[in-house]
Design goal:
5 helices; 145 residues; mainly alpha
């Protein structure tokens, strides 16, 4: 139905959208780990912390599956906007779950060393600074192309 170049560009967009979302997840987890480390003194390691984030944001799994299917199906239909909306919903819930791990301890297992407010401030400042740098790089690359 569509010209082959449109399908090629749409599949490239879908790949880059998924790759960027993966990088954003890693950055969000690392910022959350740093804030959690400041508040509670330990994180238990990277993979254990990733497991905690996955448990807090477990409904996101279904959102990601739906977004992935809609983005793949969007190559030949008009569902691209819906898939993109699901990606934004996923990121909002993922960020909220990562934020909650900074300010809320595991019941009975973690003692606070510092006030969670400062951990939240550290998390938010790190997120804003890192994303501002990334968006600046992306826009400068797009302008140079």
């Amino acid at each position: 139905m569509f010209d082959i170049t449109l399908i090629h560009h749409a599949s490239g967009f879908t790949f880059w959208a998924i790759a960027i979302l993966f990088c954003v997840q890693i950055i969000t987890i690392l910022c959350s780990m740093f804030g959690h480390l400041f508040v509670f003194g330990s994180t238990g390691g990277f993979w254990q912390y990733v497991n905690k984030v996955a448990q807090v944001t477990n409904w996101n799994f279904w959102i990601v599956i739906c977004a992935f299917l809609f983005l793949i199906l969007s190559l030949s239909s008009g569902l691209l906007g819906f898939g993109e909306a699901l990606v934004w919903i996923f990121y909002a819930l993922f960020s909220l779950g990562s934020f909650l791990l900074v300010v809320c301890p595991d019941p009975g297992t973690e003692k606070m060393i510092h006030d969670p407010f400062w951990g939240a401030v550290i998390y938010l400042v790190m997120i804003v600074v890192i994303y501002a740098i990334i968006w600046g790089l992306v826009f400068s690359i797009m302008i140079n192309l």
